[in-house]
Write the structure tokens for this entry.
Amino acid sequence: MREIGIGLLGVGIVGGGVLKIYDQHRADLEARAGCGLRIVAAVARDVAAPREGLEPAAWPLSAEFPSHMGYTPSQDTPILVEAEA
């Protein structure tokens, strides 16, 4: 199955809510999209901040967009969500 990578800018209240919805409804979202969906990057100002109800180990969390990890946003992350209030 084809897979689409998703990058998330902001993992506070809004971004955390996006991740919770993704976790809870992933199968339905993938069925609607017709492909696999995977969080490939999550960027937060404070990576050490507690995130109630989330498993930060489940997705790559960084304080800056992971270009330093070899990501090319146009190739690896076709969907980029800015989730800041």
